[in-house]
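Please check this protein record:
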Amino acid sequence: MARELTQREILTELEPTAEAALNRHLTVVRDWHPHDYVPWDAGRNFAMLGGTDWEPHQSTLSEVAKAALITNLLTEDNLPSYHREIAESFSRDGAWGSWVGRWTAEEMRHSTVIRDYLVVTRGVDPVALERARMVHMTDGFAPPLAQLDSAGEVGFLYSVAYVSFQELATRISHRNTAVVCDDPVADRMLQRIALDENLHMLFYRTVCGAALDLVPDQAMAAIATIVENFRMPGAGMPNFRRNGVLMAKHGVYDLRQHLEEVLSPVMRQWNVFGRTDFGPRGEQARERLAAFLDRLEREQIPRFEEQRDRALARDRARAERAR
């Protein structure tokens, strides 16, 4: 049986793949400027500069759109924590370091443009938004399964597996938030952000796929554990549960989308269930993953959808009574 590789060895072996993926990214990515996506002529001063402070009636966004935009923005705000985790799990040298720097710079645009849009259009309470940002960024980002990195050997595989799914999940959340905003300006902005997230996913998915070829058992164990314990990076933010329920109830991001639009496409790309190169550890992890996905599809998703449909029916009935 082949010995397991250390994190340093894996990074060294995969650096040519990372360099090729970075170069491909740089050939297709299109630079854009946050200020171009903000309707500045809709802005006006707040009270400190002689204007008026925010009032709820000033927002044209629905409660679902507000919840989704706040959740997406606060998630993007935690970039310093994500940068630290990626830099520590990957490397600051060579192609790895170049990617981490480029990825960070591109991601920074997302929080900039969403916040400018929300403040200029008075879409949400800017004071409450800033207080939530302070709380969320002060708490930082604790990567899922951080305890598995205690030996310093498995961090990269767990990190690259996580971001392969997470970047795609974030893309879908931004894309569907554009729909519920019902605003052509927000639609254009969020579609632009979603395109970035998709390109980032392609880099990570490519590298993780190469890791599966290089160390199939180690990578499969990481993938299975990440899928079983997946949670979005904003899970610790204020009001995350409330906003997440609203988003799931109204189709911004729910369990079926998570399975059918995130987990399944990525695993198909890696040919997880068609591979023949696993040893006992990899086979065991794949079997565990298959059982988890089966429970998700047969039990958890139908249960969620039944609860969602009942909740939506109650909402419609209340709306009818209020007329």
Remarks:
- Residues 149-153 have pLDDT under 50 and may be disordered.
- The first helix runs from residue 7 to 28.
- The chain has one domain: 7-313.
- Residues 7-313 form a domain with the Ribonucleotide Reductase, subunit A fold (CATH 1.10.620.20).
